[in-house]
Automatic annotation (TrEMBL):
Coiled coil: none annotated. This is SURF1-like protein. It comes from the Bacteria. It is a multi-pass membrane protein. The lineage of its organism: Bacteria, Bacillati, Actinomycetota, Actinomycetes, Micrococcales. It is found in: Cell membrane; Membrane. It comes from Isoptericola dokdonensis DS-3.
Length: 281
């Protein structure tokens, strides 16, 4: 029984390890697929915002990280700082500036039924102080063509009040369209753009401008490859079956031992063996 136990436990261990390997493969394949998708999107170049997202419509998850371009005019008097954001392990603030859109590739058709030209939140970069230098808050004058990564509007689950920021822009906790609509005038997009380039250019880091940000990713990681996931489940089921088989063998062996013990006990209690009416058999 011990030999059988070792053999079945070894089989269960092998099946469990194969299941873990399949899970690793599932996430590895999903990661490679996401990297390939990102590379293809980068190679395709920026698409017009109007071809990807219409103002005041739901934000499709597959647009996260897509490159886009849009034209408009910054409204620097209404820009805010998003608190509690880290860059390279240092906590700081995002510079969030409203862009009054004038061209999104549709000639204005995407907002023709709305109350006016929409406002696009643009993250122009990162600063380490709630009162950054004037260069970090300066924007190009007049019409500007903005290119960047698309990201979905955030939720407003964070609680607590932010302190006042005298001498600096107002502070917010989230880049949430529902809140920005109360701060900015006009229809607001359900996503925002993380700036990568603008024409005319904004002040660079060397000149005191905000630091650029990396390409945003979908929170929670990439989806698992379902085929490998189900392969992992199969291996774990096989391992569980091997272990349950050993348990069944042990129970049967114990039950057989108890029956043999009862037979020996019966022979010991009645050594002569009596038949009908108590007479020796």
């Amino acid at each position: 029984m011990l030999a059988i136990l070792l053999l079945l436990l070894l089989a269960a261990l092998v099946c469990g390890r194969l299941g873990v390997w399949q899970i690793d493969r599932a996430y590895e394949r999903a990661t490679l697929a996401a990297q390939q998708e990102a590379a293809e999107a980068a190679a395709a170049g920026p698409a017009a915002l109007g071809d990807l997202l219409v103002p005041q419509t739901s934000f499709p998850g597959e647009l996260v990280g897509r490159q886009t371009w849009v034209e408009g005019t910054y409204e620097p008097d209404d820009q805010v700082l998003v608190a509690g954001r880290s860059l390279d392990g240092v906590e700081g603030y995002l510079v969030l500036t409203p862009l009054r859109v004038s061209e999104d590739g549709t000639g204005g058709e995407s907002w023709a039924t709305l109350s006016g030209a929409p406002v696009l939140p643009v993250v122009r970069g990162w600063v380490d102080s709630p009162k950054p230098d004037a260069a970090a808050l300066d924007v190009p004058d007049g019409e500007v063509r903005v290119s960047g990564w698309l990201q979905a509007s955030e939720s407003t689950l964070r609680t607590g009040d932010l302190p006042a920021n005298p001498g600096g822009p107002p502070l917010v906790q989230d880049i949430a369209s529902s809140q920005l609509a109360n701060l900015w005038d006009g229809p607001v997009y359900t996503g925002y753009v993380v700036l990568t380039d603008s024409d005319p250019a904004q002040p660079g880091v060397a000149d005191g401008g905000p630091a650029p940000l990396p390409r945003p990713v979908l929170e929670g990681g990439t989806d698992v490859n379902l085929q490998n996931f189900f392969y992992a489940l199969q291996w774990w089921v096989f391992g569980l079956f091997a272990f349950s088989l050993w348990v069944r063998l042990v129970r049967d062996e114990m039950a057989g031992g108890r029956r043999e013990t009862r037979r020996r006990d019966d022979r010991t209690d009645d050594p002569v063996g009596r038949g009908i009416a108590g007479l020796p058999s």
